[in-house]
């Protein structure tokens, strides 16, 4: 019986054995996209079936899913169509953390190199494979964090955009005050009897009435 192929996320965590990086990444993406179609009206953000099939392995990803869906709900950004992206984020986060733990375990005194001896060869010193996994996972995580507002900078930017969009909703506008009606009263005519050319100002003294 042939050896059973590892889960794509586990293959990535192992450093893509057999140089299957492209195929493995596509498999992770496909699994995440399937999660998008699992949403139901009763529970649009149920834990993805992928995580439920291997609860022990995906324990950290499941915890992240529950925490982040609640974060999105309270911020008003939770949408069923975001399941795929959020699934990928949880998977890559778990891989990043697993790699960091493996690095800590294998290099307890710090650093990122380790010693190994190939079959029939001499001892060598090389960079720990976990460093490569972390390096590849970080830009993916940062991009998704920016999309969801999972860091202070992107959260602030999204908040500004959301505030602007809300301000454009007609029902949020205050009704404009009605324009003042034109007065129908005829303005009083100025008394020009004693100043027919209107040359006097308030400091001038008007002439006394004409004697009859």
TrEMBL record:
Q: Which InterPro entries match?
A: Phage_term_ssu_P27 (IPR006448)
Q: Where is the composition biased (Low complexity)?
A: 174-190
What is the superkingdom listed in this entry's lineage?
Bacteria
According to the UniProt entry, which residue ranges have a biased composition of type Polar residues?
161-170, 202-212
Enumerate the Pfam families for this protein: Terminase_4
Task: Report residue spans for region: Disordered.
Answer: 1-31, 161-212
> Which segments show compositional bias classed as Basic and acidic residues?
22-31
Annotated protein name in UniProt: Terminase
- Give the classification, highest ranks: Bacteria, Pseudomonadati, Pseudomonadota, Alphaproteobacteria, Hyphomicrobiales
């Amino acid at each position: 019986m042939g050896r059973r192929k590892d889960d794509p996320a586990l293959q990535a965590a192992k450093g893509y054995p057999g140089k299957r990086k492209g195929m493995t990444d596509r498999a992770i993406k496909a699994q995440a996209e399937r999660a998008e179609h699992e949403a139901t009206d009763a529970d649009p953000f149920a834990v993805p079936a992928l995580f439920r099939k291997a609860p022990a392995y995906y324990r950290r990803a499941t915890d992240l899913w529950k925490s982040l869906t609640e974060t999105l709900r309270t911020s008003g950004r939770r949408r069923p169509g975001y399941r795929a992206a959020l699934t990928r984020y949880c998977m890559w986060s778990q891989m990043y953390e697993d790699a960091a733990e493996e690095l800590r375990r294998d290099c307890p005194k710090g650093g990122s190199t380790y010693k190994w001896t190939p079959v029939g060869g001499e001892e060598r010193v090389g960079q720990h494979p976990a460093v490569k996994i972390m390096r590849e996972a970080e830009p993916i995580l940062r991009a998704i964090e920016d999309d969801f507002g999972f860091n202070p900078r992107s959260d602030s930017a999204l908040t500004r955009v959301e505030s602007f969009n809300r301000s454009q909703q007609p029902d949020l506008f205050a009704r404009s005050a009605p324009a003042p009606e034109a007065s129908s009263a005829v303005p009083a005519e100025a008394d020009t009897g004693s100043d027919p050319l209107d040359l006097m100002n308030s400091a001038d003294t008007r002439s006394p009435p004409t004697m009859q």
